[in-house]
Amino acid sequence: MSFRLLAEDSGARRGALQTSHGTIRTPAFMPVGTQGSVKAVSPDELRQLGVEVVLGNTYHLALRPGALRIAELGGLHRFMAWDGAILTDSGGFQVFSLDHLVRVGEEGATFRSHLDGSQQDFTPESVMAVQRQLGSDIAMAFDEPVPWPSDTGRSRAAMERTHRWADRFLREPAGPGQLRFGIAQGGFDPSLRAESAQTLGVMAFDGFAVGGLSLGEPKPLTYELVALQTEQLPRDRPRYLMGVGTPLDLVEAVSRGIDLFDCVLPTRIARNGSVLTRGGRINLRNRRFAGDAGPLEDGCDCYACARFSRAYLRHLFMAGEILAHRLASIHNLRVLVRLVGELRDAIEAGRFHQVSARLREQWLAAPLP
Amino acid sequence: MSFRLLAEDSGARRGALQTSHGTIRTPAFMPVGTQGSVKAVSPDELRQLGVEVVLGNTYHLALRPGALRIAELGGLHRFMAWDGAILTDSGGFQVFSLDHLVRVGEEGATFRSHLDGSQQDFTPESVMAVQRQLGSDIAMAFDEPVPWPSDTGRSRAAMERTHRWADRFLREPAGPGQLRFGIAQGGFDPSLRAESAQTLGVMAFDGFAVGGLSLGEPKPLTYELVALQTEQLPRDRPRYLMGVGTPLDLVEAVSRGIDLFDCVLPTRIARNGSVLTRGGRINLRNRRFAGDAGPLEDGCDCYACARFSRAYLRHLFMAGEILAHRLASIHNLRVLVRLVGELRDAIEAGRFHQVSARLREQWLAAPLP
Lengths: 369, 369
Known about the structure:
The structure is a homodimer. Chain A is of the alpha/beta class. Helices cover about 40% and strands about 20% of the residues of chain A. Chain A has 15 helices and 17 strands. In chain A, strand 2 and strand 3 (about 20-25) form a beta hairpin. The mean pLDDT of chain A is about 95. Chains A and B meet through helix 13 and helix 14 of A and helix 13 and helix 14 of B.
């Protein structure tokens, strides 16, 4: 088995996921490298931040520069000079979010490229082939999420197709050492969510994702559906909550048995001037930081906080200097990487209940958009 | 004296300029940090590149965030987290290039801020005060360049005013340990250029700049005027050719006794996808690099070349990823830093004639815009 469960505490899990590019200590946060680059951050900086795994987007990379191109250049790790682990998504979420979706059928989805309008087909088989070419450490099955809100009929149809696609996906060969995760769906219906986790849970996946959440539904419902699925999923394999990633979400989801996360939030808000701090989210464009000689966050050990002041970062944002994007992204990623580190330590120490209560309180007091 | 002349060879000089923030080995190239940041590059990366001095723009910093603000935050070094040397220009070049120049008189120049339209006055005294607040290691006198072409009357008037302003500038107090350079002008008239260098050369400056060149005049004229002025300037003080910086320009100017350079070229063309290589300038957006697994330049020791391929850089540029700007800027800066290093070694070894001939030939074969 690639996954070892090292400790459990109050519903939270501490594990180790072995990949061809190192061991991922879970719970783990995966920065998103949509187009083969975690925006504004270098691979060496990711390492310094304590990142062990990044996410690459199959949809974006397949369209540009193309999976075959990346394969010819030695695979995605070499292409982006990242020797840690890479998880590639299946493109399902992007394809079904597209305005240019042309047709969805039993075979797969047909859509037009947002880059050149060319017609593209994604099927469970093609999506496996693309991820094999990319050479990711973890490949995700092709799935069909549904928008919030969706009725039970639509949710059931998409869920059942997702299950059939999961089966087809598993019949394709994976790359050497490549792990494969299934994606549980079921819309926003608790019984469908439980059924999806049960159905996928017996398939030969190396791990499972909870997909199609955080699409606008109320947070309590998100957390309820996460808990429902982790209860049904096999205990001995990792669980990944896709696209979710405020600090509060991480605490809540880890307490419900989630091991892996990805989210664009830390890097996206950073480019807009927003940084996460223990005292709340601040926007560096605010005039009140113009003379602030302090670091982005007191006590933070990231490069941005070690070297630069809030006043300098504000100046860079106001002046349109792109070094600002890098420094704010580094800080925000460090906040999430440090948060999952605190959660791991707490689980190992049998103190998850106390630590998570403190962190929950802290981040409830520091709301995010 | 802050400057030691260590060797001379075929008109070229090898020196050491002592500042409050380290010794600058000359000939040296100064990357431009217009707004307190060498665009897309961190101070640690500048160090790794071998940079010893950067240029800051008085005009830009005085308008935003303001020199007083920077002084309150501990000065420009601390503000931008750069502990190497900083030379600040006087703003003369920017002010006289502005569309918003309101009035030039004996007292100074009045213009409108390009940021908020507010009226601003730059005088020899105010420009010294601003640079004292910034705390740069080398402060430049306020000067009046003239556009190409300009007639002798205009050139003489601006030159004579530049001399009077230089005198006023020197009557103001400098910051602790702050060196001051005068700027020789004279338009495009050889006899004025010689006169300006002679006049300034007897003033108590720590070094001298050749200003107001590379404004559209033919290159042979640029080089002729540079040679005319370096012949007249005191041998025991450093000479700085302002705003000039193609590789070929550096070789030509060093052979005419220039010690310091600044230019936005390496970082500006980098952000447009252009990189300097021994084989010529290439634009990474070109389709022919889509499958090129080689480094930006064979044998280059920069971070970008050590880790990434041309194909990856091309992808980043096509995808609009700002990591591309950083990596291409690092490479182009390294090319110029390495070039001045080769020139220094050649002068020390008494091989400047041969080495400069080779480099001249190389860069003549690789023309730049």
